[in-house]
Design brief:
alpha/beta, seven-stranded parallel sheet, 14 helices, 16 strands, about 35% helix
Length: about 425
């Protein structure tokens, strides 16, 4: 399907083709027609499927072809992070290049001048605002934001917003919107909290669910079955054998990220940390330094698994197995981009077997388990845990491991994974 089949505005089509959008992706082909018809949308689609265009294009088409207020906010797009809001805004600027569409990105980590620009944009009205929940709510609480005539409300990466603790903020924002609006939700996964939210805010939605795409063929996937205390020495060994030029390491909690950052910095690696405790300016500087080669390794929570646009990342290491199988695809998908090759490595401890079982089930194949390096001793035996099993018993898979060493690696300060927000 081409965009000429579903869009009618010539200026919008010119901008679409100028941006080298040739044919509709599956999510665009399925979402744009009902969105233009005014239907609510519930779409399960991963990053990289073209979902941003799937909701921006029908909104722009309707804003141009129909009568909407000139001095009010007509569309609110919610995004979990500043980085994603910036990407959406850049794409919006491209699509509306030949059109009189006004827009305003609203996110934190800015100076007073930018905050004032945001205030004026919200007060005077803009066709489309792209906002992070916390910053938009702070403007709303100041009393000058009128969302009473919003016609379009879009939640992008809804699962990430809820994972980051934004549910209460989103509910407060929704309470300021008119009930007679079009709502579109896009999420990579459909956990119970997303389903409950969709049931509460969508009216007779068109449901779209794309099959979860598999990792790129050029990503070499490997796993190491190890005990928790072996993970840090294993990471250091990998970097010693293959000094990192551009690598991402994902850990399961902010505390783990901070501890790994200190450990690798002590070993003189050019490393940075990335998690939600950092101010936005610091996060931006980390990405800029990473792109420029001033930093070789970023240790991060899943806050970085989506929305990072950096070329030539050679290696992604899952220090902790992600809890969601889809998140594994997002993480290792940071490498092997633009038809390049890359490596995705996962450290798998005993308590993470079930999570990695789900990942292999999603992939439809077993990930190669590499032997631990010489001197590490034996790791645990990898176990396939059946759904009705509570213990560690199951189908054991034996993998070649290094001979048992008489010297056990010293347990590092990095402890067991804890659960907290990004």
């Amino acid at each position: 399907m081409t965009f000429e089949d579903i869009l009618t505005n010539d200026d919008l089509l010119d901008a679409v083709y100028d941006m080298h959008f040739d044919k509709c992706t599956p999510i665009q082909a399925q979402a744009i027609p009902p969105a233009i018809d005014g239907r609510d949308i519930m779409a399960i689609a991963q990053t990289g499927t073209g979902k941003t265009a799937a909701y921006l294009l029908p909104v722009i088409e309707r804003l141009i072809n129909e009568n909407f207020p000139q001095d009010r906010v007509n569309c609110v797009v919610m995004a979990p992070t500043r980085e994603l809001a910036q990407q959406i805004d850049r794409q919006l600027q491209g699509f509306s290049y030949y059109l009189p569409i006004t827009s305003m990105p609203i996110y934190g980590g800015t100076d007073g001048m930018t905050y004032e620009q945001q205030r004026k944009g919200l007060k005077n009205g803009a066709d489309i605002i792209i906002a992070t929940p916390g910053r938009l709510l702070s403007h709303i609480n100041m009393g000058y934001v009128d969302l009473s005539e919003v016609s379009f409300f879009i939640l992008d990466e809804a699962d990430r917003m809820l994972d980051m603790g934004f549910l209460d903020d989103i509910i407060k924002i929704i309470s300021k919107l008119p009930k007679n609006r079009q709502t579109m939700m896009f999420s990579a996964t459909m956990p119970d909290n997303i389903k409950n939210l969709a049931d509460n805010i969508l009216i007779n939605p068109v449901e779209i669910k794309l099959a979860v795409s598999k990792p790129a063929d050029k990503i070499k996937q490997e796993g190491y079955v190890c005990y928790e205390h072996q993970k840090l020495p294993l990471l250091e060994n990998i970097f010693k054998e293959n000094p990192p030029r551009k690598a991402l390491v994902f850990a399961g909690s902010k505390q783990k990220v901070k501890e790994l950052y200190k450990a690798l910095r002590k070993e003189k690696y050019k490393v940075a940390e990335m998690h939600s405790d950092l101010e936005q300016v610091k996060r931006d500087n980390v990405i800029l330094d990473f792109k420029a080669g001033k930093i070789n390794v970023i240790i991060a929570t899943d806050i970085l698994s989506r929305g990072i646009d950096v070329d030539n990342i050679e290696t992604v290491i899952n220090f902790d197995v992600p809890r969601d199988a889809e998140e594994y695809v997002h993480r290792i998908g940071r490498t092997a981009r633009a038809d390049k090759e890359g490596t995705g490595i996962t450290f798998i401890s005993e308590k993470e077997f079930r999570s990695f079982n789900r990942i292999e089930s999603l992939l439809g194949k077993e990930v190669e388990k590499k032997p631990l390096p010489n001197g590490f001793g034996r790791g645990p035996e990898y176990v396939i845990i059946k759904k009705n099993q509570k213990g560690k018993k199951g189908n054991r898979r034996n993998f070649h491991r290094s001979p048992k060493s008489s010297k056990k690696p010293q347990k590092p300060s990095v402890g067991d994974r804890s659960i907290d927000k990004n």
